[in-house]
Amino acid sequence: MSRVINQAFDKGANSSFAIQVKDSNGDDLDMTGFTLSAIYKKHANSYANTIQTLETAGYSNGYVVVSMNSAISNTADWGRFYYYVTATQVATNTVIRIQEGILTIRP
To answer: What domains can you pick out in the chain, each with its CATH number?
Structure first.
């Protein structure tokens, strides 16, 4: 089950947030064996052509960083969007939804 946390980015700015991922024992989950994806769209049921991808990076200490650089955020519409972050374990092709919520892009 993913966590629900709302985030906010400023239009035209470099913005990022970090997520600490824990395993079922509460220990940091090594994210180096995962492919990460972060997507935002106007609402949860938006069609695929409205999906935008955010940049992601995973680290061995259990952290995932999600970011949007200024070139992308400058061209993005402002408003409220649904976002989610998933991790796919390459060895087993297991997909985990890490976090989701509302991403507000402020003008």
So the answer is: 3-106 (2.60.40.10)
